[in-house]
Each structure stands twice: as C-alpha cells, then as structure tokens.
From TrEMBL:
Residue intervals of the Glutathione synthase substrate-binding domain: 225-332
Record: residues binding substrate: 133, 159-162, 235-237, 241, 296-299, 515, 526-527
Stated name of the protein: Glutathione synthetase
Binding-site residues, ATP: 155, 335, 398-407, 409, 431-434, 467, 517, 523
Cofactors: Mg(2+)
EC number of this enzyme: 6.3.2.3
Keywords of the record: ATP-binding, Glutathione biosynthesis, Ligase, Magnesium, Metal-binding, Nucleotide-binding
Amino acid sequence: MADFYPSYPPSLNPQQEEYLLSNAKDYSIAHGLAVRPPTSDALKAQDPAGLLATTAPITLFPSLFPKVCFDQAKSVAQAYNELYSGIASDEGWLTGIVEELAQIDDFMAGLWKVHQAVKSEGYAQSLDLGLFRSDYMVHLDKSSGASQPSVKQVEFNTIASSFGGLSTRVSELHQFLNSIDAYPEEISSIVNSSTLPANSSSPSLALGLAKAHEAYGPSSKQLPTCVIFLVQDPERNVFDQRHIEYNLNKTHNIRTFRLPFDRVLQDTKLDDGRKLIYTPPSMPTRHFEVTVVYFRAGYAPSEYTSEAHWSGRLHLERSAAIKCPSVLTQLAGTKKVQQVLATPHSPHLARFLSDPSTASSILSTFAPIYPLDSTSPAGKDARALATDPETAARYVLKPQREGGGNNIYRRNIPAFLDSLPESHWPAYILMEMIEPPAQRNAILRFGATAEEGSPSSSVQTGGVICELGIYGVCLWERPTTTTTAAASTNGGRVGDDAPPRPILRENFEAGYLLRTKGDQSEEGGVAAGFGSVDSPCLV
Ligand code: ADP
Ligand code: MG
Ligand code: MG
C-alpha cells in the first residue's frame, strides 16, 4: 500500500499536529475511548481511589486497507458463524481432537473434564451464544505478479473476543477528525466520508447478548433477570466492556452485573432446576436469575490458580444460564481445530458447511497450518521445517492459548522445541507467517509498553502492519443427540456419519476491529502492550 500512497500519512507542521493531537486526546476521553492506566506504585500513591483513565492506544490516522479485502472478510462472517456453531455442536468430531490435546495439555484436560462432567449429568441449557471474532491480515501473492490482495486468517476467537466496545469509537474518532479538517486537504481524496466505513461492533455485540437474554425467557420464579459479565479483576480494558453493558442497559433495558472470575462460588447459587441465581454483594437481600454469562475471563490457565476456579467454571457450565461461550464452544476455537480445518483436501469443511461455494469461500481464507505429530506425513514435514532455523524463519509456533503473548516466532522456534520433550510438540501447531504490506502511521499511547517497562506517553511514528477482525454473533440450539463415535478427525469421510447440526436462531456479522502494530513487533495484542486500535480507510 505504501507503494501506491507514498505520502500517507502526510507530515504535519507543528500547528497541524497540535490541532490533530488535542482533538484526538479530548475526543477519546469524552467518548470513553479509554483504558485504566498501567498499575505502578507511583501511580497508586497519586491515585489511591483508582480514578484515573487514559486514552486507549490509538492511531492518529486511519490505516489504508484494501476495500476488496475488507469486503471479503465481511462476506464470510456468517459462514464462519455457521462453521463454528457446527463444530461446537459436533461433540464426536471434537472428541478426537481434544482428547489427544488433553493428554499433553493440562488446561485442555481441565476444560474437557468440565464438559464431560456436565455431559454425564445432562446439560441444563441447549442454547449457546458465540460473540466471535475472526482475525485476518492482507496477503499479497508474490508468485502471481499483479494479483489482487486477499485476506488470510490469523486465528478465530470463540471466547472473550475483545475491543468491540472501543472499536466503534475509534472509527467515530477518525470520522470526527476528518470532519473537522484535522487531516490536511492534500489527503482528502483518500480519507473522506465515503472511505471511512461505519462500525457497529459495540451495539451489535450488545444486540447479540440481548437476543440470547430474550431467548432465555422470563424467570420462572418471578425473579428479576440479569446478564453477568464474568471478568478479570483488575481489568485495564474495562471501558471496552462497559460500552456493551451500557448499551444493554440503555437500548435493551437489561440489567448487567460484573462478576470477577474469583467470586463465582461466593456470589452465585444453583437452584433445584439449576437456574443460576446471582446475589450482588452490595444487595445481599436481592436475587437475580442469570440469563446469560458473558465470559471476558476464564480463557487462560493463569486464571485457574486453585481447584475453586475449576469448581466455579463447572458450576457455571452446569447452570441453565446461556454461556457465551460454553466449554465446547471455547474448545472449538483452539488453534488445533484451525489447523485441522486447514488440512489440504480434508473433508472437514464439507462436514460443517453443506453449500460447496460457502465452504470454498472459507477455504480461501486459510493460510498453511501444520500439525507437529511424529506420525502423519504433514507432522513429519512440519517437524523438519520447524527445527531448521532457515525454514523456521517463515513460521510461527502456537500453543492452545488465547490472549496474546503465547506464540514463538520464526528463528526462536528450533531452540524452543529443543527445550521441550518431543512428546509435547503435538500440543502446538506450526503456521506460515502472513506478511501484510507495511505502511506508515502514528500511534498514540500512554503506558508501559513491553519494551519500555515504565509508564510514559508518546506518539510513535513509523512502519506499521494491520490486523482486521470481523465480529460475528451466533445464537444456536444444540442438537439433542450427540454422536459418540463420530468420524475420526484423520480418516473420516464426509457421509460416514451425518453430523449433528445446530439450529441457528441468530447469525449476523457484527462490525469490525482494526488493530495496528509496529512492523518490527511479532505480537499484536493491544492489551498486552504491543498494538493500537485503528480504523480502516478503504482504498
Ligand atoms: P492469540 O489467540 O493469543 O491472540 P494469535 O494467533 O492471534 O493468538 O497470535 C497473536 C499475534 O501474533 C497476532 O495478533 C499476530 O499479530 C501474530 N500472528 C499470529 N499468527 C500469525 C501469522 N500466521 N502471520 C503473521 N502474524 C501472526
Ligand atoms: Mg489473536
Ligand atoms: Mg485468540
């Protein structure tokens, strides 16, 4: 893109820069495009009540993004919802994958155990809610000369897909800056109201929760109802979540409460029908029936520091509340599942997507991903690629983890594998690095970056790359019968057994997120201190 638009973004004189920056800073805080500051002893002393908030890491300009890629990513959102609701409903198919992982990955084993326990008793809720996010980067096929850019999927998220609340606001920020001429005249043919797309992520995710709340129905005990946001405590990215809460409150008249993952067992009870009853610590005489538990926590092993955390997770899974996500849906989002789906010539996509053109549009978004087992031909090839520093330089190694900061990149892969017993290698997948074109932008951030270590604020200008996420809302009814011995994930042919299909109640695309990071950084996590929230200028 930089090749086509060498002068983007334009350099600003000091007066222009001051105008842009002061407007960006004030708009952000005025509209809740904000995060809590990183905790440091110095800040704690100044702000014992925790009142401070700062501008979220943002780009000052919208990044250039190919319109064909944006449209392509949006066009497959509903198909991805169908695919992942299908996987989460096909317990037999997932069993083959998860049981293998569970042997070498304690976190996978813990989640599987929760599912098994609830399955043996019978699930009290047949509805499942997914607030998904499918992440992509732009891929240029260098081998085929002048071909169009396309998107390749970085990963698919089925739990705690974040930034939908802030993303709507950064799109609006860039639109606002454009409307007040904070962007110089010379780029008005590139940045204008027709190239900055609207972004419904915040209201759309709230709508998804509202639809699930409505589908749950009223309390059979005449209790007031509520949606629970299951959260980490402390949470710096709290406003991202609050925007969705406030939308539920204002637009849908739905009560929400924030429940720290630590407090599940203290603050909730199951009644005899396994209805989840929440008693707010601030109102000990009042009880609410929980319709939906929205997980913004519980996705990382570091959150399960005691057996009580696992008991809490089991308690929620047993309940009649609709889980967003259920354990099976969380497991459907593992990197291993993404690798199995991407296996060339596999029957898996056709298993879940009956329409061949839908399946092929999904297939075209996959980058090459390999298993690391010692027996399959693909696994043996991948082992050879990953252990040679020359070839490893084109790959990223991923464990079955979420939330950023878990991957091993490029030339670090061989030494990492060397330090790991070979029997544990299959807990990882090897993925080809997507190499999106770099461009320039300016990132405004306050707070400790991974590199700096201490809080400070700055504008950093330089080469950046972008990752586009498309949100999807899917509410489905799980089929009542699950296959027990389904087609194996390796040898199963389509038609060997009909997969149990979910009944889709809601399936819609739900806005987007553009995250932008320095082109020298491998990781992209905004919360983890690597990236920034951006919006696309479609070119
Ligand atoms: P997580 O679930 O922890 O977010 P990801 O698979 O999204 O894991 O990886 C984290 C980051 O690593 C991504 O946001 C992206 O910046 C980078 N990354 C992951 N896979 C690739 C890839 N195939 N090509 C380029 N970058 C990647
Ligand atoms: Mg990611
Ligand atoms: Mg993820």
